[in-house]
Write a structure and sequence with these properties.
By secondary structure, this protein is of the alpha/beta class. It is built from twelve helices and ten strands.
Length: about 350
């Protein structure tokens, strides 16, 4: 094993970790799509993470977040998201596996059909999570509604703690220094796989970013590995570019400090692609729909309209514009989320 990989693994192994996912997730070449695009395109299948058929990238973070919660003796866990949040559903499933009661505060970005639960919201109900929906008030932004949800969650946690329970709060998307360790470790996993594939060298990795925890973890892993691969983080919702990069850069520093490393992530290495989030979060775009169809019809694989479809759309746009050169070797990190294909029609859009 490469010495840098071993060192990164040594850093992460010192932290408590719950065994929730199935690792390593597969990496392989997309032969037909590579031929169609004129590039060498590989995929990392974190939609196969587990712990059930609807897994995704958040399980990497939850292994560390819930490993710490178990160590502390937590009886309840609270987390947040939209009504179709992948993170919220994966947290509820992971809690059930560990014997912890999940509590979800879900912002209503797209109104669920009355009397009908779909996709992740349906799974949340099957899992028996304590669910609190937080409708957006007139004139309120999504960010403001999320802040209200966090206040409600804090009050519920205080109530449980006062009753002698231990309630642990996990931020939206698992975006914390502990959660992001999961993706630093994920970069070590990928490096091991590329080494086993003949020391395969990538020029770029494309992935979707929401709350920033995945992005931070990947950059920490990149720094600790001494990798020169360019990480292209494709936003799934509107961001203030400089403020977002500042936030993620600060989180990188926090993760490195937690791991006890004196390595650094350069701010200039953080690349945020803001070309694909329109018209909004949980709102479909024609570019994402086209990306979903193309991957399905060349490789028989599915990405979703909220996250991975928009990230793949960014990759396709960069191929067509020449930002990805002919014959260049790149990887698409599939972070999961295909349950959105069964969500409300407003989220799915005109996909066929």
């Amino acid at each position: 094993m490469n010495e840098r990989i071993a060192q990164l693994r040594a850093h992460t192994s010192r932290l408590p970790r719950a065994q929730l996912g199935f690792f390593p997730t597969p990496v392989y070449r997309l032969n037909r799509l590579s031929e169609a695009l004129g590039i060498e395109l590989y995929i990392k299948r974190d939609d196969f993470t587990g712990m059930n058929l609807f897994g995704g990238n958040k399980v990497r973070k939850l292994e560390y977040l819930l490993g710490d919660a178990v160590r502390r003796g937590a009886t309840h866990v609270i987390t947040y998201g939209a009504t179709q949040s992948n993170h919220a559903m994966e947290t509820a499933a992971a809690c059930r596996r560990l014997g912890i009661q999940p509590i979800l505060y879900l912002t209503v970005v797209v109104e669920p059909e009355e009397g009908t639960a779909r996709a992740n919201l349906l799974l949340d109900q099957i899992l028996g999570a304590e669910i609190h929906t937080v409708p957006m008030l007139p004139g309120e932004t999504e960010e403001q509604a999320d802040a209200r949800a966090a206040e409600m969650g804090a009050a519920r946690a205080a109530e449980l703690n006062a009753a002698g329970q231990l309630c642990v709060d996990i931020p939206m998307g698992g975006a914390s220094r502990l959660g992001s360790v999961g993706f630093a470790d994920g970069m070590a996993e990928l490096a091991e796989q590329l080494e086993a594939m003949g020391d395969l060298k990538l020029s770029k990795i494309y992935h979707c970013t929401g709350t920033g925890g995945t992005m931070a973890g990947m950059h920490v892993g990149r720094a600790l590995l001494g990798s020169e691969v360019e990480l292209i983080s494709v936003a799934a919702s509107p961001k203030d570019e400089q403020a977002y990069i500042d936030k993620v850069h600060a989180l990188c520093g926090d993760v490195l400090a937690l791991l006890g490393s004196d390595a650094q992530v350069k701010r200039d290495d953080l690349h945020l692609d803001l070309t694909q989030w329109q018209p909004g979060y949980e709102q479909p775009s024609e570019a994402a729909s086209e990306a979903i169809r193309l991957l399905a019809r060349t490789e028989g694989l599915f990405v979703d309209p909220v996250y991975t479809g928009k990230a793949l759309a960014a990759l396709l746009a960069d191929v067509r514009s020449g930002k990805i050169a002919r014959g260049e070797r790149v990887l698409f990190w599939h972070t999961g989320g295909a349950t959105a294909l069964f969500a409300e029609p407003e989220i799915l859009g005109d996909i066929c």
